[in-house]
Design brief:
Elements: H1 4-14, E1 17-18, E2 23-30, E3 33-38, E4 42-44, E5 46-49, E6 52-57, E7 67-72, E8 78-88, E9 99-101, E10 110-115, E11 121-125
Parallel strand pairs: 1-5, 4-10
Antiparallel strand pairs: 2-3, 3-6, 6-7, 7-8, 8-11, 9-10, 10-11
């Protein structure tokens, strides 16, 4: 069971930035780690990522926790570590699609809805209700 302090820290890390961009390519290193490139800014809960290449990974692919970490390409900066929801890939979604987006925000950035590191299961990001 998590204490309030650790839950607060996890929430604070999750709210560090939001970026909206469109995915132009992805390269898989392993089922739990993937390089994803965006050609414009995209957003995640609490943070915005500029265009560029980022690493999306599950820190412990064998745990039952749905944690996702987003890092700089060289792993020198951790932009986000957050809990996600496990979701099934929608029928008809292309197998090579690794990111799905929500509707654009007021500022025109595209919030990332889910990351799809495997064929049928993805990680849906949890956004605060507004």
């Amino acid at each position: 069971m998590f204490s309030r302090k650790s839950l607060f820290r996890a929430s604070a890390i999750a709210l560090l930035g939001a970026v909206a961009t469109v995915s132009t390519g992805a390269s898989s290193q392993a089922q739990h780690s993937m390089y994803v490139t965006f050609n414009r800014p995209v957003s995640l809960p609490g943070l915005t990522l500029r265009s560029g290449t980022y690493i999306f990974e599950t820190p412990d692919p064998y745990s039952s926790h749905d944690l996702v970490r987003v890092l700089s390409r060289d792993r020198s900066i951790v932009f986000l570590t957050t809990f996600t929801r496990t979701v099934d890939r929608p029928a008809g979604m292309k197998a090579n699609q690794v990111i799905s987006f929500r509707e654009p925000s007021r500022d025109g950035t595209f919030p990332i809805d889910a990351w799809w590191p495997q064929d049928s299961v993805g990680h849906q990001f949890i956004y605060p209700d507004r």
